[in-house]
Specification:
The protein is α/β, with parallel strands linked by helices. The chain has 2 domains: 189 residues, FAD/NAD(P)-binding domain (3-Layer(bba) Sandwich); 134 residues, FAD/NAD(P)-binding domain (3-Layer(bba) Sandwich). The protein is 29% helix and 25% strand. The chain is built from 12 helices and 22 strands. It comes from Planifilum fimeticola. One of its GO terms (molecular function) is oxidoreductase activity. This is Sulfide:quinone oxidoreductase. Pfam families: Pyr_redox_2 (PF07992).
């Protein structure tokens, strides 16, 4: 009987890994020596970085959605099911009705914003972490003429530059509509600086000061009053708003926590070099599901290269020698005209940040390139 690799999660990381494996191991799949099983609960695949483009009406929803089956290599067995438990002790994953045994497991279950962690937040806040949320935020911003927009940001969150990019793009969006002067734009964040990468924080601070974006550090949300439109913080302060845009702390997928595999936030303890789950040589983890000391997002492409190389070597009876160095990168839009590009790894962060119109053009090409990357063509 052939071996089976189960890839859990049909987002960018999981789909990319399944397709890369299928392209590298076509002969083994055809001969029946190997099966690659990709399990996801959604038949639609969303290009999540495109949510901000929907918010600012640069793209329509149909431009950032594909059918998952259209993206998956013919050598991959695609199953739509919701996994409830991961059982490394039995080498299987379980849904309500079915058990899927594996020889090797890849966990790519991502992360999710926790809107239930703060009383009143779910009822009060707009966000850009789902297509539905992006559409609601688009409509809310389109109707704004004056007032107070409060952006409240907590850690960790996926999309390492997304909250800053939203604030900067929003400033430009309001200026283009000729209503910026009548709007107080405030960016409140839980840390002591605007971004965990100091060069990014320094650059963003200069942009905020030039453009009159109010910023407040150590902002710890305690509760929100939806009726009075007030935010209350842990230090007893009260902050009124007309539109509240929230980036709450993210957590790992429920299946990870329910299986007893996650840390206190539901992220899988992962070896930073091998991308294996700590304590299990047959389970690999990548993308936002890991607890690696890196920004959430911007790393899945590079992680998949290492993970796939090692799995292919292992199946061929060779040593796993490929090592992940923490590499990642992301674009950061500054306006509708320019953008920056930030690259990092475990030992190196950007020395400085700048933006340009050329980088904005490259950022615009990120969407079309994504569909090729996720299919493992690029």
């Amino acid at each position: 009987m052939g071996k089976r690799i189960v890839v859990l999660g049909g987002g960018a990381a999981g789909t990319m890994v399944a397709n890369r494996l299928a392209r590298r191991l076509t002969d083994s799949i055809r001969s029946g020596e190997l099966e690659i099983l990709l399990i996801t609960r959604s038949e639609q695949h969303l290009y999540q970085p495109g949510f901000l483009s929907v918010v600012f009406n640069e793209k329509f929803p149909e431009q950032i959605v594909r059918e998952e089956k259209s993206l998956v290599h013919r050598g991959v067995t695609l199953v739509f099911d919701e996994i409830k438990r991961i059982r490394p002790d039995r080498r299987c994953v379980q849904s309500r009705t079915t058990e899927y045994p594996y020889d090797y497991l890849v966990i790519a279950t991502g992360s999710r914003p926790d809107f239930d962690g703060v009383p009143g937040l779910k009822e009060s806040a707009r966000h850009f972490y789902s297509l539905e949320g992006a559409l609601r935020l688009r409509d809310a911003l389109a109707s704004v003429k004056k007032g107070r927009i409060l952006i409240a940001v907590d850690q960790p969150h996926k999309g390492p530059g997304a909250p800053l990019e939203f604030a900067l793009m929003l400033d430009d969006y309001l200026r283009r509509r000729g209503i910026r002067e009548g709007i107080r734009l405030k960016y409140a964040y839980s840390d002591g600086r605007l971004h965990r990468m100091q060069p990014v924080a320094d650059w963003a601070l200069s942009q905020f000061e030039q453009r009159g974006i109010v910023h407040q550090p150590f902002f710890r949300l305690e509760k929100v009053d939806p009726l009075r439109k007030r935010v209350f913080t842990a230090d007893g302060e009260e902050h009124p708003f007309d539109v509240l845009v929230a980036v709450p702390a993210h957590r790992g997928a429920p299946v990870v926590a329910d299986s007893g595999l996650g840390d206190e936030r539901g992220f899988v303890p992962t070896d930073r070099l091998t991308l294996k789950m700590e304590g299990d040589d047959r389970v690999y983890v990548l993308g936002d599901a890991t607890n690696l000391p890196l920004p959430k997002g911007g790393s899945a492409y590079y992680q998949s290269e290492v993970l796939v190389q090692n799995l292919v070597s292992r199946l061929k009876g060779l040593p796993e020698t490929s090592v992940y160095d923490g590499k990642g990168a992301f674009f950061l839009g500054n306006s509708f005209r320019d953008a920056g590009f930030i690259a990092f790894d475990y030992s190196r962060f950007p020395k400085s940040v700048s933006s340009s119109e050329v980088l904005r053009w490259f950022k615009g090409m990120q969407g079309p390139a994504y569909w090729l990357n996720v299919r493992a063509i690029l």
